[in-house]
Specification:
By secondary structure, this protein is α/β, with parallel strands linked by helices. The chain is built from 4 helices and 4 strands, in the order E-H-E-H-H-E-E-H. A 4-stranded parallel sheet has the order 2-1-3-4, covered by helices on one side. Strand 1, helix 1 and strand 2 (35-40) form a beta-alpha-beta unit. Helix 1 (18-30) crosses helix 4 (111-132).
Length: 133
């Protein structure tokens, strides 16, 4: 974490859709004012292509955001831990600002189903960003 810059980590089980969209929005909307990480408790081997498509519609490219494993170091380096509908698969970290966003999983869904998930994530990111900076 930078001394002057808040840091957030977005966590979902596979780190292939919800957390990647959230990280993409946070990077884009914060203009670099927030350090952003994303990770998963059981990362997939690739990003959900429909999540990529949905974000490209918004002008945000998340194709380079490869799924990453959640590590204690990543959590320690973050001011806020945001989990995304993964229940017990995403551990709770005492002492951190913690939020659990109940979101549908975009895995296996078409673009028409992923767009509302994307839009809900955007609204939550805007509210979180207003609170962080």
């Amino acid at each position: 974490m930078s001394e002057n810059k808040p840091s957030v980590i977005f966590v979902c089980v596979h780190n292939a859709g919800r957390s990647q969209m959230a990280a993409g929005y946070m990077r884009h909307l914060s203009g670099g004012a927030v350090e952003v990480r994303s990770a998963g408790s059981m990362p997939a081997d690739q990003i959900n292509p429909v999540a990529v498509e949905a974000m490209l519609e918004e002008g945000i490219d998340i194709r380079e955001e490869q799924p990453k494993i959640l590590t204690p170091d990543a959590v320690e380096a973050s001011d806020a831990v945001i989990t995304m509908g993964c229940g017990d698969a995403c551990p709770y970290y005492p002492g951190k600002r913690y939020e659990d966003w109940k979101l549908s999983d975009p895995a296996g869904q078409g673009i028409e189903s992923v767009r509302p998930i994307r839009d809900e994530i955007k609204g939550r990111i805007e509210a979180l960003l207003a609170d962080l900076i």
